[in-house]
Amino acid sequence: MDWNYFLELFLGGLTRGSIYALIALGYTMVYGIIELINFAHGEIYMIGAFTALIVATVLSMLGMNQFAILICAMVAAVVYSCAYGFTVEKLAYKPLRKAPRLSALISAIGMSLFLQNYVLLAQTSDFLPFPSLIPDFEFWEPYAHVISSQELVILMTSFVVMVLLTLLIKFTKIGKAMRATAQDKVMAALVGIDVNRVISVTFIVGSATAAIGGVLIASHIGQINFYIGFIAGIKAFVAAVLGGIGSIPGAVLGSFVLGWTESFFTGYISSDYEDVFAFMFLVFILIFRPAGILGRSETQKV
Amino acid sequence: MLKLIDVQTHYGKIQALRDINIEIHQGEIITLIGANGAGKSTTLMTTCGIVPPSSGDILFNGKSIVHMNPNRIVAMGISQVPEGRHIFPYLSVKENLDMGAFLRDDTDQIRKDMNYVFEIFPILAERQHQQGGTLSGGEQQMLAISRALMAKPKLLLLDEPSLGLAPIIVRQIFDIIKKINQENNTTIFLVEQNANLALKVADRGYVMENGRITMTDSAGNLLANDDVRKAYLGI
Which one of A171, A172, A187, A190 makes the best mutation probe of the B interface by having the most chain B beta carbons within 10 Å? Predict the structure, then answer.
């Protein structure tokens, strides 16, 4: 066995998985709190990438250095995406909070189509080149054949974001409020938690991680269009379901499993069937663990 | 302290409460008794702002709280121990208590209050790192009451604290309700199906039938009342 090739595929899968994870976190957190599949989430990620493209183009004309542009573009993407995530919830989901769940789902699909077409009209349907914002570090040169410095930055950034998110949810007051609201909304209100505010914060946090993922992947792949949110969204959604939707460690684990599945199958078998393998694996896992790898099956205690 | 004036509440088209008038004074223990489905829990949920009334007014210390969000009502000093306990199942016992103190930021006093509830329910101190959902029914009821106390309420609403518990634990819980009322001067509004027990600790009582208040009197008089005895005390 060629261990170098294996390592390459392993790290490639890890990178891919960490991007899925950044997007999947938003799906799983929103589902955990209001039991809604937020189909517009992929579009939030896409809007993050577009914001970064616009900011990066303007700043590079001003002649800023690469790293500074990356940081500015990232911050702008996060701010913009958060604003969109917050507004989408207030406009499309909050009025339907007491309606049947299907209504909110349809509203989410509508929001997704609306945002796609809005970007299509405001920008263009063509693929736009996205500048490579992540520098190639010289000191990393000797190891670049195993993992490029771009992939390294993606991995490190995702890792830091996930650690920060875990700390937020585990130890801060708003994090505890988020968990309490996810477990029992009526009781959360009865201990004085402003449930609407917690839901808004959840959308904002999810949008922020998606935007970070959007900027990283766009810079890695080098081109974007209005449709990237759909593909990435579906994949991340699969990852979230695979890990057990509603569970945060589940979303991360599911993303890595999905990333590795794609990476190994394409590496050892054929790259034409990447998506086939990914979805086959999903079906396979769900047959044996219907609630996902770390999902809790719904048991009603009477 | 709390005054419900001609309160009506609807679930969709179904009317659950009809012209409810209840008045509770500072320091009292008031009980609301009635059969299943009479509207007792709805009365509490309406007071807390979870199910807003369709008409009527609710005054707390003279201020209308009818259109306030539940979290603002909690902030004014009303806490509820809901029916079925509603423990956060995947938060630890300690985190459940922390949630009770969600609106407070006086860390030192919160710690003191937590020690106080650990003193009245030592079992909770033992289990403080266990997940709430793993506790037994009685322990969950103790936790639910403790969590409400952590908010330092001026008015404590208790919904069927005896439901599904062994008689010895029920007695223990009722002793503690009395103790809370006497030691902290906390006003208590107690909803119960176990009318006998409730009327023994309460100062006054209201009887509810089909969404209406049908009778109100001192607890002693209600205990002696023939209709109440027949309908609710099984004598």
Answer: A190
pTM: 0.91
Q: What is the CATH number of the domain that holds A279?
A: 1.10.3470
Return the structure tokens found at B204.
């006054």
Q: What pLDDT is recorded for position A144?
A: 75
Residues 6+ apart with CB under 8 A from B112: none
Instruction: Give the tens place of pLDDT for each residue, A80-94.
Output: 999 999 999 999 999
Q: Which of A173, A186, A191 sits opposite B100 (nearest CB)?
A: A191
The residues, any chain, with a CB within 8 Å of residue B49's CB and separated by 6 or more, are A189, B65, B68, B69, B70, B72, B73
- The ipTM estimated for the assembled molecules is 0.92
Two structure tokens written together for A279: 């979805």
Domain that holds residue A106: 9-288
Identify the CATH number of the domain in which residue B111 sits: 3.40.50.300
For A94, counting Cβ atoms within 10 Å of its Cβ (0-12 exposed, 13-18 middle, 19+ buried), the class is middle
Q: How many CB atoms lie within 10 A of CB A49?
A: 30
Q: Averaged over B18-28, what is the pLDDT?
A: 95
